[in-house]
Amino acid sequence: MDDLSSIVTAVSRITIFMLSALFLGWAILPEYRPLCNGLILGLATGLVYVRYLSSKVRGLVNLVISQERKRYSFGLITRICLVFVTVMIAAKVEQVSMVGTIIGVFIPQILTIPVSIVIGLRSKS
Question: Which residues cross the membrane (predicted)?
Fold first, then answer.
């Protein structure tokens, strides 16, 4: 369970670092503002997505440990709606790039793979 917390913490730190770089890029490069806006919106949503899913996984682990016979939901509809609302905002607002938003939503999920590999290798040694 500690590995899950450390993975989510590392992904959150990397994502916040990327967000700060994008805010700086938004301020310095005005011609790329729509792309930066889309990436900022997507990264923020992706970070919420990752943290929400990790809380659901923790809840499932606690349910399995307690050995209760109870139904459990991963909140799939909630996560789909979160991404859907983000894409609809990007579609409605002209200053936000749709492509940047979609890419930004997937970056934190993709980051979990190399982060978990690095954390796994560190914990082995």
Answer: 7-29, 35-52, 72-91, 97-121
